[in-house]
Amino acid sequence: MSRETDICEWLVRHPGSSRAEIATAFGLPRTTVTSVVGRLLGQGLVDEAPDPRHAGGRGRPPTVLSRRGADLLVGVVIATPTRARAAVVDYRGQIHSRAHALIDASSERAVVTSLRSCLDTAATKGGIALTGLDELVVGLPAAIRPDTRRPALTPVPENSAGWNGLAPWLSTSVIDHLAAELPREPHVENDANLAALAECEFGAGRQFRNTMYLKLTAAGIGCGLIIDNHLQRGSTGFAGELAHMHIHPDGPICHCGGRGCLATILGQDVFRALEPGADGPDRLRAIDAIAATLGRALSPLCTLLNPDAVILDAGLGQIGPRIRDGIGHSLRAATSPAAVATLHIVTGELDDAEVLGAPALARNASR
Ligand SMILES: [Zn+2]
After folding, report:
1. How far is the C-alpha of 320 from the C-alpha of 309, rounded, in Å?
2. Where are the alpha helices (DSSP H) in 220-282?
3. Largest CA distance in the chain
4. Ligand 1 centroid – CA 329 distance (Å)
5. How far does residue 46's CA lie from ligand 1's centre (Å)?
6. For residues 74 and 89, is the Cβ–Cβ distance under 8 A?
7. Distance 22 CA to ligand 1 centre (A)
8. So what family is this one in (predicted)?
9. I need a labelling partner for 180 at 20 to 30 A (CA). Which of 222, 310, 325, 334 fits?
10. How far does residue 65's CA lie from ligand 1's centre (Å)?
11. Ligand 1 centre and the CA of 265: distance in Å?
C-alpha cells in the first residue's frame, strides 16, 4: 500500500491526530508527513480542523486531521450490580446517544435481555442499528481475565459468608450469551480500566504516560493502571485491584482470600460517606479517613511504579478536591520524596469516563 493509503486508513481509527502524531506513529520525518498530508488534503480525502485539545490557548491553534466521512462508532454498555447505561460514541469522544435501564436479575436470560435492550435503545436513539456499529464494548464492575475476556471471579451471595461484593448475576455464561446475541464479539473490560483509558485519552491524563486512576464510589474502590501509555491488566486481570492491597497484618480475612485488605479496613459504612447527598457531622471525618488510608495504600504503589499522576474519579464532585488533598498529604508523608517529587494528584475531567473509555479501548485493541 502507498504511504497515502496507510495514513488515510490510520486516520479512520485515530481521528483528530496532529501531523506530529502521524509522524511518530509511522516513524516518518515530519516533512514527509507534511507533504503526504498536503496531497491528501488536495484530494479531499482528509479534513483539517483546529485542535480541540488546545482550546483557549494563545496564538494560532495547531490543527488536527481526520479521514473525511469515516467516523467509526462504538456501542457501549456499562453495568453496575443493578443498573445499565449504554451509549453510542465515536472515536473522537463525542457521545451521540444514551440509554439507561434497570437490570432485571431474576434470571440469566433477563440480565442478558436488560443489557442488550439498553444497548439497542442507545443505538436506536442514535439512528443506527446494532449491526451498523463498528465496535461493541461491555464494561463490568469486576476484574476481567485478559486471556478469556470474561470475569476473573464468580460472585458469592450477599447473605452468605465470604460475600465478595460482585453483582450476583455476574458470570462467564451471562457474558457468553450476551456476546452470542450481539452482531460482533464485544470487547469486555473492567469499568475502572475504561475510565482510566478515557481520562488518559480525552481528560486529565492526556499529558501523562504513567497514570494511576482511582474510581471511588459508595460501592467501593477500583483502580486502572496505565504504564508507558499501556493499560496494565496483569496475569489474571487483577492488576489495579487496589481494594485488595494488604494494609493491616491483623485485619480481618477478606473475601478475596487475603487478610487486612484495604476494602476490609475501610468497610462499607465508611464508603457510605461518598454517597451523593450523604450528610451529617461524621461525614467529613469519614471522608478524611478514606483519603488518609488511600494515601498510605498508594505509597508502596508510587514507590514501585513511580507514576506521573494519580487521577481521581470525576464523579466525586464537590468532595473531590478534599479527597485529593487528603490523599496527597498522607501519601507524601509516607513516601520517599524521590518517588513523588513530580507526582500530580488531580481530579478527573470526564463526567462519564467509563463510556468514553470505549473508543479508547477499541482503538487500542486494533493497534
Ligand atoms: Zn481482599
Report:
1. 15
2. 262-271
3. 69
4. 25
5. 50
6. yes
7. 43
8. Belongs to the ROK (NagC/XylR) family.
9. 222
10. 46
11. 10
Give residue-wise pLDDT tens across range 177-224. 999 999 999 999 999 999 999 999 999 999 999 999 999 887 788 999
Grid cell listed for 71: 467516523
* Cα 149 to ligand 1 centre (Å): 22
Structural contact between residues 43 and 79, judged by C-beta atoms closer than 8 angstroms = no
Q: How far is the CA of 19 from the centre of ligand 1 (A)?
A: 46
Specify the pLDDT at position 160: 58
Q: What whole-number distance in Å separates Cα of residue 45 and Cα of residue 288?
A: 54
Q: What is d(CA 322, CA 318) in angstroms, rounded to the nearest whole number?
A: 8
Query: What is the whole-number distance in angstroms between the Cα of residue 112 and the centre of ligand 1?
Result: 28
List, in sequence order, the alpha helices (H) in 126-234.
172-181, 191-202
Going along the chain from its start, the domains and CATH numbers come out as 3-67 (1.10.10.10), 73-193 (3.30.420.40), 204-349 (3.30.420.40)
Examine the pLDDT at 156 and tell me if it is beyond 80.
no
Question: Is 234 exposed, middle or buried, given 0-12, 13-18 or 19+ CB atoms closer than 10 A?
Answer: middle
Distance 29 CA to ligand 1 centre (A): 50
Give residue 255 CA to ligand 1 midpoint distance, Å.
6
Q: What whole-number distance in Å separates Cα of residue 265 and Cα of residue 215?
A: 17
Q: Starting at the earlier edge strand, list the strands of the sheet with 83-90.
A: 95-102, 83-90, 73-79, 135-140, 187-190
Q: What is the pLDDT of residues 34-72, one digit of tens each?
A: 999 999 888 888 888 888 777 666 777 789 998 877 778
d(CA 29, CA 36): 11
